[in-house]
Amino acid sequence: MTTLPRTRTAPEVRVGESLPEVRIEMTPTFIVSSALATRDFQDVHHDRDRAQAGGSADIFVNILTSTGLAQRYVTDWAGPEALVRGVSVRLGAPCYAHDTLALFGQVLSRADDGEFEVEVLGRNGLGEHLRGTVRVALPEGAS
Amino acid sequence: MGVQVERDADAEIRAVAERIRAAGESGPRLARDPVNQPMINNWVEALGDENPVYADESAATASVHGGLVAPPAMAQVWTMPGLRPDFDTDDPLHAMMTALDERGFTSVVATNSEQTYHRYLRHGERIGVTTRLESVVGPKRTGLGDGWFVTTRSTWYSGAEPVAEMMFRVLKFRPPQGEPAAPAAEPEPAPAILPAISRDTAYFWAGTAERELRIQRCGGCGLLRHPPGPMCPECGATSPTHLVAAGLGEVYSYVVHHHPPLPGKTLPLVIALVELDEGVRMLGELHGVEPDRVEIGLRVQVDYRAEGEITTPFWRPAGGAA
Prior knowledge:
The complex is a heterodimer. By secondary structure, chain A is α+β, with helices and mostly antiparallel strands. Chain A has helices at 28-37, 48-53, 63-78, and strands at residues 18-26, 83-91, 99-110, 115-124, 127-137. In chain A, strands 1-3-4-5-2 form a five-stranded antiparallel sheet. Chain B has helices spanning 2-22, 37-47, 57-62, 75-78, 92-101, 202-209; strands at 29-30, 107-117, 128-141, 146-158, 161-173, 214-217, 224-225, 241-244, 248-257, 269-276, 281-286, 299-307, 310-317. By secondary structure, chain B is an alpha+beta fold. In chain B, 27% of the residues are buried. In chain B, the strands form three sheets. In chain B, strands 1-3-4-5-2 form a five-stranded antiparallel sheet, sandwiched between helices. Chain B has a five-stranded antiparallel sheet with strand order 11-10-9-12-13. The interface between A and B is large, with 55 and 52 residues.
């Protein structure tokens, strides 16, 4: 029997609050396994020769993984019962193999229905890999 | 002539796009598999997502969900076309990609994804997706090469119920010929951006040209001030003079600039706010010390270098090797 970790409640979260930085190593294994786990078989995500022939420096992370990492980053911070309502990402610099992705975040706003918008920024050695928002609803908390 | 051929090709791409767009929404394409634990396990394992509501039945049962659910960000995963895609359907994104491939825009990168989840999905639901082409914009010159931005909108259904929506944009581009882009390469040397010289600051730059560090001094009350301005904040006099500083001070604060790149600069670069022995504080680059060895209170001395038309001052550790 696993106990469920605690989830942040809406009253505990302050607009403007920062999320802790998380760094993820972009190993070839990570890039390939996440591409396959998202059923994305584009060669640029697993075949370096083909990626380079297409003008890339190496294999790179696919957008479904960037979306998933944004979701994970916010729910890791908010807790397991945060309800994810949406994830938007805009990609900039590619995340090539052997780079490190550093994720940063900040609570941007709170809507009337208690849904929070959290900005997520992912930087790597080339600059800004992703900028996006994750929308989450948090429990109101016991009173 | 060549320009005309290009314009014809562009017009042709726009015509194809308009035809696909006018055809509207594709019929629903069903997921290969219903929502299931093994695929969820693969996903959470690969992405390192340890949220127990996706993989731990007892924790999920105790949660607000009352049972296991799929990660919302997997919505698109269920209907991915897979390793051997069967596109006998009227998939608009695939049709547009093919049209651009045929015209030499052979590479693709995704640039935007905006997903909304109406609810969490549960095991056993077999969802389907409909997609329509929203726009094709181009040709655009990008860092990757010339290309077209292709935007689609998709809706996922479980039965007749919409469960998720997405705006998805890709750049379909023509890779430049020759060597692949080498992002780790040294940036092109470019001239540094130099300060603009105004009537208020001319005395300072005239000083650096003589390898003198000049501090503005009020002609009325004698107050030293930096950065310079036309009027003394203390007595209001508008008759500034200056004195020549000894060029010694200590680091009052500093930042290490890693990004973004700056023309003519090698990063990382330490920018120090130095408190001069005369009392004013002055910004400048700090050289001759590793960024992680800089400390508040570090004694520094001024040095100069010619950059284009002007001579700029910078800091180096005092008494260090010149």
